[in-house]
What does this fold into?
Amino acid sequence: MRALVAMSGGVDSSVAAALVLEAGHDAIGVTVKQWQGPDGQLPVTGCCTVSDAEDARSVADRLNVPYYVLDHVEEFTREVIDRFGAEYLAGRTPNPCIECNRRVRFAALFDRMESLGCDVLVTGHHARVVGVPGERRLLRGVDRSKDQSYVLHMLDQSRLDRIRFPIGEMTKKEVRDRAAGLGLRTASKPDSQDLCFVGGDYRDVIRERFGDADRPGAIVDMGGVVLGEHSGTTGFTVGQRKGLRVAVGEPRFVVSIEPDTGTVVVGPRSALLAEGCSLADVSWIATGAPRDPAIEIQIRYRSDAVGARLVETSGGWDVWFDVPQEAIAPGQAGVLYRGDRVLGGGTIVAALQGVSV
It folds into this structure.
């Protein structure tokens, strides 16, 4: 078997490549160039940097596998960065890593896999794929603190059939220990916490791409009383407390964002509670929606999944929580689980109040 290994320059993808070779297979390493600086070169801060590419190439050299850099800057700029800015300007809070996986990264990797005659795609994600009769299932990684299944919920059966996540059965410590034992330079490299195209303030990226489109306006309470002013709605997200610069004697949180008028509405923490959320652009891992409406939903990348009930509507799907949840941010992904198994997911478009039907 020949595997195309996506190598980000981190320890996880480095060990994934090594495990492919240990299993007796051939490997070809690739790095997807998604973002570049004004000079047309890879950036020096954030992630997907010059040093990341150098680390990936070094590991490929040590493992004696061919290595290529794939240039997909144009697609990434159009499908991820511009969407990221447009979503913030519309008052939503996007997850660009999900949009990258959905619109750019996996398409690029699968295309190159075919052209290079590879049988499978291997990545360093902390997730698992298992086969049952007639179906491939996506599961959380064994190391729940590093689980990345949330950002993979858009993968379908055809892609899961040709994807391997070899470190999904390992803890992060085990991955680093394996890298150290192999003498890989990435063994102790810290995990990246940054968006690849944001080296500092994400609002700088929005200003660069959209100019002065960010609308300043008023910060008001839930009764419409003006409490302060702000320089642009893109600096806020639902549930935010810090940086509001309003003093009313008790903590206030962003409850909603109204970009058309440049208004940011704040209120007490209790105002953040919602009984459910609506999802759009829902995709399913299997061939359709689960028959049993009892599911779990994860509404942020690093939150816990909570019990809920799934209801189909004329325009998408509603999810009603077993217990009200805080800070439902439109634009984020709502990913549906049953235990460790990913069922699918979609984009949160609204918080719901009232009684489910």
Observations:
- Residues 215-271 form a domain with the SH3 type barrels. fold (CATH 2.30.30.280).
- The longest strand covers residues 341-352.
